[in-house]
Design goal:
The complex is a heterodimer of chains A (91) and B (314). Chain A has 91 residues and is an alpha+beta fold. Helices cover 57% and strands 16% of the residues of chain A. Chain B has a domain at 4-167. A five-stranded mixed β-sheet of chain B has the order 3-2-1-8-9. A four-stranded parallel β-sheet of chain B has the order 4-5-6-7. Chain B has a two-stranded antiparallel sheet with strand order 10-11. Classes of the chains: A alpha+beta (91), B alpha/beta (314).
Chain lengths: 91, 314
């Protein structure tokens, strides 16, 4: 079950959408690279770490800014079309 | 023989090749002109490539557009002028200055698993310096590594400057005025969109020996394609290119006339880039064969980057 708990601006949506797409792209790359491809692999690992932390920082800073409702074991989702934030409750 | 008809739907249609589109004012091809262009394509049995502007076309254009087999450049084929964070289309064109290609090679490589085909188009070939050879080769090797690992994971993607040469057995180049022709919103034919842009912006045509003019059209939809001395655009009239084995080379006709003043003679920069790509493909081929993949006919080692430098022995 999920319900709308807030909204972000289109600019804020663009930030998280870019990070989301970047993270997905890196995950695809990670599926095919191994530690044998040392230079690329090291870059990828560093990049994934940085992207993941930027991704988490975005959620932390926006949650602090907008005071979205939170529930233990639940998570937030964003609708990129509408900029709405949903609270997704555990089944 | 003509195989493709490029239809520029608007003056502001996306640039998808080497030349930038400097035209900023909308000038949509009239519907009647579009109908004539489609009819021309049908009669000549040409594959149509519509080049779209960014804005949505009026409803009445769609019926005419859909009346013939085609590809939509700027829609089905996505065109990017900077490295995107993700690509959602199966086929994409990435247009970049060479310095960006070199500095962003890792980010470009990261896009390869997301596409079926990526066409990389360097937009400032004329500024390429021999001192950049090593950096360009390194950038190609970065992309090549991802292609190899994709193959090992039973996935496939094509990158024009690395995989086309694996499949080609003879020259397959730009072909402007030979295998393809462009019709502009004014209903006139041009060798490619870049020649139309040059005419519209008043750049003098120095290949015209008779009078100073910026005119570059080669016929129109009423009288057909009329290219003066069409043999001078053909491979068999290019003494070095016809025996060159950088089969994937763009041999961009527009860049040729801009940089060498001859539509059929590529510049030093074009030759060097094409040979660096050929050699990177050779390295990729060797690694693919080592990994047990079929990788086309063996690409031989060479000791030159510009055939003109070794023309006596070539």
């Amino acid at each position: 079950m999920k319900k709308v708990v807030g909204q972000v601006t289109p600019e804020e949506r663009n930030e998280i959408q870019t990070l989301f797409e970047r993270r997905n792209g890196l995950n695809e790359l990670a599926k095919i690279l191994t530690a044998d491809n040392s230079e690329l692999y090291e870059k990828l690992v560093k990049d994934m770490g940085e992207t993941t932390s930027k991704f988490q920082n975005w959620w932390n800073s926006k949650a602090q800014k907008y005071h979205w409702e939170a529930v233990e074991n639940a998570n937030w989702e964003i609708n990129f079309e509408t900029c709405e934030i949903f609270l997704v409750l555990p089944q | 023989m003509l195989q493709y008809l490029v239809i520029l739907l608007d003056d502001t249609s996306v640039a998808y090749c080497h030349a930038e589109n400097p035209l900023k004012a909308r000038n949509l091809m009239p519907l009647d002109t579009l109908r004539k262009a489609v009819l021309f394509g049908m009669k000549e049995n040409l594959m149509i490539q519509y080049v779209y502007p960014e804005y949505d076309l009026p409803e009445e254009y769609h019926e005419v557009i859909e009346s013939i087999d085609h590809v939509k450049i700027g829609r089905d084929v996505a065109v990017y002028n900077e490295v995107p964070t993700a690509i959602t289309a199966d086929n994409a064109v990435l247009r970049l200055p060479i310095a960006d290609f070199i500095s962003r090679s890792y980010d470009i490589a990261a896009l390869i698993p997301q596409v079926k085909r990526l066409n990389i188009c360097i937009t400032d070939i004329e500024h390429f310096k021999d001192e950049q050879c090593e950096q360009y080769s390194k950038a190609l090797a970065t992309l090549s590594e991802v292609l190899l690992q994709l193959g090992k994971a039973d996935k496939q993607a094509q990158v024009n400057i690395l995989t086309d040469r694996l499949q080609l057995k003879h020259m397959h180049n730009c072909g402007a005025g030979d295998t393809n022709i462009t019709v502009a919103p004014n209903g006139k034919f041009y060798l490619c969109p870049a020649f139309y842009y040059d005419e519209k912006t008043g750049i003098s045509n120095r290949l015209n020996h008779h009078k100073p003019t910026s005119e570059r059209s080669v016929g129109d939809l009423d009288y057909g394609v009329q290219i003066p001395n069409p043999q001078l655009l053909k491979l068999d009239h290019a003494p070095l290119c016809r025996i060159c084995d950088a089969f994937h080379c763009n041999r961009c006709v527009w860049l040729n006339q801009k940089l060498t003043w001859d539509a059929n003679t590529p510049s030093h920069q074009q030759c060097v880039l094409a040979h660096l790509e050929r050699n990177a493909t050779r390295d990729l081929q060797a690694k693919m064969m080592e990994a047990g993949f079929e990788a086309g006919e063996e690409i031989k080692p060479i000791d030159y980057l510009d055939p003109f430098d070794v023309r006596e022995e070539f």
